[in-house]
Design a protein that fits this description.
Elements (H helix, E strand, L loop, with lengths): L1 E6 L25 E2 L6 E4 L5 E4 L12 E5 L16 E2 L2 E5 L8 E6 L4 E5 L6 E5 L5 E7 L10 H13 L12 E3 L7 H13 L6 E4 L20 H10 L3 E7 L2 E2 L5 H9 L4 E2 L7 E3 L2 E4 L6 H9 L2 H4 L5 E5 L7 E2 H11 L9 H12 L5 H4 L2 E5 L2 E4 L7 H16 L6 E4 L2 E2 L7 E3 L7 H16 L5 E2 L1 E2 L8 H11 L5 E3 L16 H28 L4 E2 L1 H4 L13 E3 L3 E3 L9 E6 L3 E7 L2 E8 L2 E6 L5 E6 L2 E5 L15 E5 L21
Parallel strand pairs: 6-24, 12-13, 12-28, 13-14, 14-19, 19-23, 23-25, 25-26, 27-28
Antiparallel strand pairs: 1-11, 2-3, 3-10, 4-7, 5-9, 7-8, 8-11, 9-10, 15-18, 16-21, 17-18, 17-20, 21-22, 29-30, 30-31, 31-36, 32-35, 33-34, 33-36, 37-38
Bound molecules: alpha-D-glucopyranose.
Length: 669
C-alpha cells in the first residue's frame, strides 16, 4: 500500500507520474514520526533492521552506519567518507527481519538537498532532514495483497516502481561490449582500436567517443581536423558491427558564431544569474552557459540538437557533466583572483595557508555558485540550488524526447552521469568517475541492486576503473563482474595507463570473459526486459530472497541475478578464489577457456570456491535452469533460440526466455 503526504510547498519533480491521493500524516500507522522541533522524519531502527536503497552511493548494500546527502556531485576521487555522488536517489526500504510486516519503503520527492542519517549520529536512529522543508513523502507499507511468492522488499520495490513509471528500454545491441577512453584523438585512433580487437578475435560492439571528437569541446560539432571523415568512419564501423557512441556535455561554449550558443542566447534558453544575464561558468571548453534543461522549450530545443549526430548515423549517446559540474563561475573566479593578491609576500602560517589553499581549491563545484543562478521552471523563476537534482534528469529526458521525435520507432542508447528518480524512464546511468582500485570494484557490485530499486536498470560502471592506473589482475576481475551488467564499458581517463584488453598479455583470458558475456546475453537481456515489464529488479541482494536467513541478510559481496542465478565475484587482489555463502544448494557453472563447465554442486553453507584469474563462474539455484547461448562475435549474432539450459534439481521450474527484435518498441508500445 502506498500513501502520499505533503510537507510545505514542494516543487514538482515529475518523478511520480501516477500519484496516489494525499493522506494526512497523522493517519500514518508506521513508526516513522515527525520531530516537532526539527521537523525531521525519525524512525527508531531495530537492532536487526536493514536499510536498503539510496541508489548510487558509497558503502554497503545495507546503508546503516553513515550519513548520505542527496545532492548530485561531480566527485571523481571518492572514498567511503563521501556523502554524495553523481546521482540523487531518495528511496529506501527499512526491512525488519523480526517483524517483516512492519517493513516499509520511503521515497522523499524533492528536487533539492535531502540528508539521510542512517545511524550516523545515533546508531539505531534513522533521521531524514529536508532543509527546504518542502517535499512529498511516499510511504509504502506491506498490504494484504502482497503476493505469496515474492518477498517483502521485492513487493515494496514493485509497488514503488509501478508508481514511478516504466524504466528506459535500451536496444539489445547495447548489451555488447564497448571500448571507451578519454583521449582517442582522431579517426585513426578509433580504427586502431577496432583493428586490435579484430586481430585478436575479441568481440566489440561499441566504441565510445569522448570529448576529443568535438571541435574545442563544443556540443554538436565535429573536429574536422582530427575527424575529417566522421560520416565515413561511422559507416565503416557500422559495417564492422561497431557503433560509435559520442558524449554530449551539459555546458555550451560561449563563442560568437557558434550556432548552439547563438540560438541559446537569442531565445533566452540559458540559465540566468540574479540580474537576468546568462550565467557564465567554466567546464571543458572554458567559458560556457548551461542550457536551462528545466525549461520545457529550452529542453526541447537542446533535445533536437542530437539530430546533428543522428543524421550522421549515430544511434547512442552518453550525457555528461550534468550534475551540473562547475569548474568555476566567472564571478567567483574573478573574486578569487582579486583575493589571491592579498596573500602575495605574506607569511603563510597555519591559518593563512589553509585559507589560501581553500580559496583555490574551492573554486570548483562551489556551493555558492549553485545558489547564484536560476531556472525558468514551469513558468517560475527558481533558484538552481532548490532544484539541483533535476538538471541531469531533465537533460536526459530532453535527449530522450528529442530522439523519440527524431525516430519514434527506434530505441536509442542513452545514459547519463547525473540522475534523479524519474530519469530512469528516459535513460540508463553509468556510475560516474571511479578509480582503478579494488574497493571501487566492490562498490560497483553493491550499487547494482540499490539502483535497480530506484528503477535504473540499464547500468554499469567504468570497468577497470576510470582514474589512476589499472592493473591487469584488477582488469580481469572487474571484467568478470561487468560481464553481468547491462552496460559493459571499459573506460579510462586521459593520462592513465592504457587499458584496452589488447594492451595486456593475457588476451586468451579476456577472450574467455568476453565469450562468457555473449553467451549470457540471452539470459541477461531477458532478465533486463522482464524487469522493465514487471517492475522487478534484475540484481537483488541475497536478503531479498532468503529473508529468513540471518546470514544471507548480511552478505554484501554476492548478488542474485533474476530468479535463476547467484554471483560471487572474486574482488580481492592476489586471491585464487573466495568464500561463498550458499543459502541453498546450488551448482557452479564456470566459463573457462571459452568452454562452459558444470563444475560441482555446493550444499547450503559456506564453501571456499576456487576461481583462477580470467575465469568466471556463477551458481544456478536449486530447481532453476539457466539458458546459455553460443559463443558469438557480436550482439547481432546472439540467437536466443540456440540456447542450452543448465539446471539443477528434480522439479526444475520452466524459464521464461524473453526475446524480441531488440530495436523497436513493438511489445512495449
Ligand atoms: C568526465 C566524465 C568522464 C569523461 C571525462 C572527459 O570526467 O565522467 O567519463 O571521460 O569527463 O569527457
Amino acid at each position: 500500500m502506498i500513501n502520499r503526504y505533503t510537507f510545505g510547498n514542494p516543487i514538482e519533480t515529475e518523478a511520480v507520474p501516477s500519484k496516489p491521493s494525499l493522506t494526512s500524516f497523522s493517519k500514518n500507522k508506521t513508526r516513522l514520526q515527525i520531530n516537532p522541533e526539527t521537523c525531521d522524519l525519525e524512525y527508531p531502527l531495530a537492532k536487526d533492521s536493514i536499510v536498503y536503497g539510496l541508489g548510487e552511493n558509497v558503502r554497503g548494500i545495507n546503508k546503516r552506519g553513515f550519513k548520505y546527502v542527496s545532492y548530485c556531485t561531480d566527485i571523481p576521487n571518492h572514498s567511503e567518507d563521501q556523502e554524495s555522488l553523481y546521482g540523487a536517489h531518495n528511496f529506501i526500504i527499512i526491512f525488519n527481519p523480526s517483524a517483516p510486516e512492519t517493513s516499509l519503503g520511503i521515497f522523499i520527492d524533492t528536487p533539492g538537498k535531502v540528508i539521510f542519517d542512517i545511524g550516523f549520529e545515533s546508531l539505531d536512529q534513522l533521521t531524514i532532514s529536508v532543509p527546504s522543508g518542502s517535499f512529498d513523502l511516499y510511504i509504502i507499507s506491506i498490504s494484504e495483497n502482497i503476493s505469496l511468492n515474492s518477498g517483502v522488499a521485492d513487493s515494496i520495490v514493485r509497488e514503488f516502481r509501478q508508481h514511478i513509471g516504466r524504466s528506459y528500454i535500451a536496444p539489445k545491441w547495447a548489451f555488447g561490449y564497448g571500448q571507451s577512453r578519454w583521449g582517442y584523438k582522431c579517426s585513426e585512433d578509433i580504427r586502431s582500436v577496432r583493428d586490435e580487437y579484430q586481430k585478436l578475435g575479441l568481440p566489440l560492439d561499441m566504441i565510445y567517443l569522448d570529448i576529443d571528437y568535438m571541435e574545442r569541446y563544443k556540443d554538436f560539432t565535429i573536429d574536422r581536423r582530427s575527424y575529417p571523415d566522421f560520416e565515413t568512419l561511422v559507416e565503416e564501423m557500422r559495417a564492422d558491427g561497431i557503433r560509435l557512441i559520442p558524449i554530449i556535455d551539459g555546458g555550451v561554449k560561449k563563442e560568437s558564431g557558434y550556432d548552439v550558443y547563438e540560438e541559446g542566447v537569442k531565445n533566452g534558453y540559458f540559465c540566468k544569474d540574479e540580474d537576468g544575464n546568462d550565467f557564465e561558468l567554466g567546464v571543458w571548453p572554458g567559458a560556457c552557459h548551461y542550457p536551462d534543461m528545466l525549461n520545457d522549450e529550452a529542453r526541447a530545443w537542446f533535445g533536437q540538437k542530437y539530430k546533428f549526430l543522428t543524421d550522421k548515423g549515430i544511434e547512442g549517446f552518453w550525457n555528461d557533466m550534468n550534475e551540473p559540474a562547475i569548474f568555476y563561475s566567472a564571478k567567483h573566479l574573478k573574486e578569487v583572483f582579486e583575493s589571491l593578491d592579498e596573500y602575495r609576500g605574506d607569511n603563510l602560517d597555519l591559518n593563512k595557508f589553509f585559507e589560501f589553499k581553500g580559496l583555490v581549491e574551492g573554486i570548483n563545484n562551489n556551493p555558492e555558485d549553485y545558489r547564484s543562478f536560476y531556472h525558468n521552471y514551469r513558468g517560475q523563476k527558481v533558484l538552481h540550488d532548490d532544484v539541483h537534482n533535476l538538471f541531469g534528469y531533465y537533460m536526459t529526458r530532453g535527449a530522450y524526447e528529442g530522439l523519440r521525435k527524431i525516430d519514434p520507432s527506434k530505441r536509442f542508447l542513452l545514459f547519463s552521469r547525473a540522475s534523479y528518480i524519474g530519469m530512469h524512464r528516459y535513460g540508463g546511468i553509468w556510475t560516474g568517475d571511479n578509480a582503478s582500485i579494488w574497493s571501487h570494484l566492490k562498490l560497483n557490485l553493491r550499487m547494482l541492486p540499490s539502483l535497480n530499486m530506484c528503477g535504473f536498470l540499464y547500468i554499469g560502471a567504468d570497468m577497470g576503473g576510470f582514474g589512476s592506473n589499472t592493473t591487469e589482475d584488477l582488469m580481469l576481475r572487474w571484467t568478470a563482474l561487468s560481464i553481468f551488467t547491462p552496460l559493459m564499458r571499459n573506460h579510462s581517463a586521459l593520462g592513465t595507463r592504457d587499458q584496452e584488453f589488447y594492451r595486456f598479455a593475457s588476451t586468451p583470458l579476456f577472450k574467455n570473459l568476453l565469450s562468457a558475456r555473449y553467451r549470457l546475453v540471452p539470459y541477461l537481456y531477458s532478465e533486463y526486459m522482464k524487469s522493465v515489464r514487471d517492475n522487478t529488479m534484475m540484481f537483488r541482494p541475497l536478503g531479498f530472497v532468503y529473508e529468513n536467513d540471518s546470514i544471507a541478510l548480511e552478505i554484501e559481496d554476492q548478488l542474485l541475478i533474476g530468479d535463476e542465478i547467484m554471483i560471487a565475484p572474486v574482488m580481492e587482489q592476489n586471491a585464487s578464489g573466495r568464500v561463498v555463502y550458499f543459502p541453498e544448494e546450488m551448482s557452479e557453472i564456470r566459463f573457462e577457456d571459452e568452454n562452459v563447465i558444470a563444475v560441482k554442486k555446493y550444499p547450503a553453507g559456506f564453501h571456499y570456491v576456487e576461481l583462477p584469474l580470467g575465469a568466471v563462474n556463477l551458481f544456478v539455484r536449486m530447481n532453476r535452469k539457466l539458458p546459455i547461448g553460443e559463443a558469438v562475435a557480436s550482439i547481432d549474432e546472439v540467437d536466443s533460440t540456440k540456447v542450452i539450459y543448465y539446471g539443477l534439481g528434480s522439479e526444475v521450474k520452466p524459464y521464461e526466455l524473453y526475446d524480441d527484435d531488440g530495436v523497436s518498441f513493438k511489445e512495449f508500445g
